[in-house]
Amino acid sequence: MLTILGKQSSINVRKVLWACAELGLPFQQEDWGSGFRDIDTDAFRALNPNAMVPVLIDGDFVLWESNSILRYLANRYGDGALYPVEATARARVDQWLDWQASDLNRAWSYAFMSLVRRSPDHGDSTQIQISLRSWTRFMLVLEGRLTETGAYVAGPDFSLADIAVGLSVQRWLQTPFDRPHLEAVQVYYQRLEQRAKELSLYPLLMGQA
């Protein structure tokens, strides 16, 4: 059985839990991180030298970095539906996975930590506004893409990219600020909410930012 180390409030841990649900994989999840078991220990750093969650343990194989874990699970246990084998289709999924991790996440990080997590280290009002403007700019990119596909971020079918991007959209909608209404993003999120309900994972996947 797979073991997933990391607290459920982590967006990156929820990515992995969602992938396991999509693939029908049994797993055990252990709460590690702030408020739970300490990740700043030699024992945990032996699993992930960055001292971050999630960490996946599959037998004697240990893997960290959430999007890498998504790819591994789909490659090892999937049938190609979440992560296509054909080169161009796979590249499109990879493009949006990487965009979520490198561009979108970087944009919302400061504002989210301030406005939702109430972090005392993220109280600079100028930096909050910079973060919100950048976040909005990237969400407009997503709006354009979803308007184009009329379905999911990598194309007509649900993929690993929607797990990562969808959870980031959740943060966009749950962060208290005066955001523009993005119709295609809203419809997309409703589609993902329904999928989460069908997996019986709605409270876990969509119930918290």
From TrEMBL:
Pfam families: GST_N_2. PANTHER family: DISULFIDE-BOND OXIDOREDUCTASE YFCG, GLUTATHIONE S-TRANSFERASE-RELATED. The keyword Nucleotide-binding does not apply. Belongs to the GST superfamily. The keyword Transferase applies. Keywords: Transferase. Residues 86-209 form the GST C-terminal domain. PROSITE patterns: GST_CTER (PS50405), GST_NTER (PS50404). This is Glutathione S-transferase. InterPro entries: Glutathione-S-Trfase_C-like, Glutathione-S-Trfase_C_sf, Glutathione_S-Trfase, Glutathione_S-Trfase_N, Thioredoxin-like_sf. It comes from Bordetella genomosp. 4. GO terms for molecular function: transferase activity. Residues 1-81 form the GST N-terminal domain.
